[in-house]
Amino acid sequence: MAPLSRQVTVYTKDGCGECVRTTSLLNRKKVPFATVHVADDDETMIAALKAVAEAQGVAPSMPLVEVTDDESGDRVQWFGHRPDYVLSEILNPSRGVRA
Question: pTM for this structure?
Answer without folding.
Answer: 0.84
